[in-house]
Amino acid sequence: MRAASKDESRNVPSQRRPKQFRMPEHVAQLIDRVAKMQGRSQTDVVIDAATRYAEDELLDQTKMVWDEAGYDAFSKAVEGPAKPSEYVVKARQRKRSWE
């Protein structure tokens, strides 16, 4: 049995298409700094950042379609008062240090 390659272990296709682009020197230095700090390649840093950005953009453009009951439930949840968590309730019951 062979060991999984780095690409396979991250569920990234091992077939990569080369991309070349120009960037300002300060951006290249920033990417270099992050890559060294994380012990990763510059390519991995750029791919991760670009992927995250692309996914966020797609999610921002996602249209939600609701039936009337679903929309009413969503509106009630968003517009109604938030339920305090157990942690918040306990924190509010503690004596404050300035008291």
TrEMBL record:
Residue spans with biased composition (Basic and acidic residues)? 1-10
Entry-linked SUPFAM superfamilies: Ribbon-helix-helix (SSF47598)
GO annotation terms (biological process): regulation of DNA-templated transcription
The record's annotation in InterPro entries points to: Ribbon_hlx_hlx, TacA_1-like
Keywords, A to Z?
Answer: Toxin-antitoxin system
Region named Disordered: 1-24
Question: What's this protein's family per the entry?
Answer: Belongs to the TacA antitoxin family.
The protein's name is: Uncharacterized conserved protein, DUF1778 family
